[in-house]
Design goal:
The chain is 16% helix and 47% strand. By secondary structure, the chain is of the alpha+beta class. It has a domain at 107-222: Trypsin-like serine proteases (Thrombin, subunit H, Beta Barrel), CATH 2.40.10. The chain is built from five helices and 14 strands. The strands form three sheets. The chain has a six-stranded antiparallel barrel. A six-stranded antiparallel β-barrel has the order 7-8-9-12-11-10.
Length: 223
Amino acid sequence: MKYLLIILMLLATPLRADILEDILYPTVAVKSKGGSGSGTAVAVDPILGTYIITNYHVASMGEDLMVFFHGDNNGYPAYMVAHNVAYDMAILVTRHKTKHLAKLGKSSDVTLFKDTVCIGNSFGYGILPSKGIISGIDIEIGGYLNLFYKMDCKIVPGNSGGGMYVKVGDLWVYVGMPSKGLVMRGQFFEHLGLAVRVRDIKEFLAYHHVISVTEAYDEGRPY
């Protein structure tokens, strides 16, 4: 009942044109027999297709991964081409070439108490956004090498691997990757409101040649 109320609240949220273009369209649903999750289209290769950033625990659900783009009822096979288990990140590629890519932000775009929008494949029923504020920066979680952002968006099953966005000028930019839960010392913790930082994501993408080193670095330091 609680989850049903959350879905109804999300569906009742009107979507402005800027949210549709900058946030909704680059978000993909990731599905397999092992479950469902989310991802974000970040680059297109003219030969290989669309690169999608997601959580490793989403990409490792099974070998039968399919991705679904907004407004397209067709599912497209996707394959994991890179992963980092310690940071819970993975890169998928699918032959389908989308026109809609997330605009990658930087660490300086993320400030305490700033409004944020998180989006993902909520409960596997569709791509839905939720709004919140950023309540923590560079949060340390025992057992994890990387630091996290903390926010109070509604992170529900299926949201893992989706996008966390903030507004910079007239654009919504991608600054993190929400995760529904984390495994710490063998125990699964849910609804912590944590997101992988854009700095770590861009370094990971640049290392695997999805984006350029120039895009991943600013003023002589990593994002």
